[in-house]
Design goal:
By secondary structure, the chain is α+β, with helices and mostly antiparallel strands. Helices cover 50% and strands 23% of the residues. The longest helix is centred in the first third of the chain and has 53 residues.
Length: 119
């Protein structure tokens, strides 16, 4: 009986360590994602400013692609780098009938926005 109690305590401790470890990993991962989301927001703001300044508003059904190189050449951004992780990106502006829709995409060494298309 004593042996069973010790085994239960041992495995309970192991399970607790696993849960704590996974929680810590989750917080670290989420912290890194927040930094990339902030970089995406920075890119989106630059795209909006560029479109407003250049009057590049698309018509219904059209899309306008704004590259990182365009934003850099117009001094809207200096780069898209994050802690030793160099990134490339672009923005797509479309008109859906009521409002303009801005979507931005990042491609970094350690992160990539969903639906990023290198072409």
């Amino acid at each position: 009986m004593k042996k069973l109690k010790l085994m239960t305590i041992f495995w309970g401790f192991i399970i607790l360590l696993i849960v704590i470890g996974l929680t810590i990993i989750g917080f670290v991962y989420k912290g890194k994602l927040v930094k990339y989301e902030e970089l995406e927001q920075k890119l989106e703001n630059a795209v909006k400013e560029y479109v407003d300044e250049k009057f590049l508003y698309p018509n219904e059904g059209e899309k306008v692609k704004i590259t990182l190189q365009e934003l850099i050449s117009e001094n809207k951004l200096d780069s898209l780098n994050l802690e030793n992780d160099s990134c490339d990106g672009y923005g797509i502006v479309s008109f859906n009938g009521n409002t303009f829709d801005y979507k931005v995409y990042l491609k970094c060494d350690y992160y990539q926005t969903k639906n990023y298309n290198k072409n």
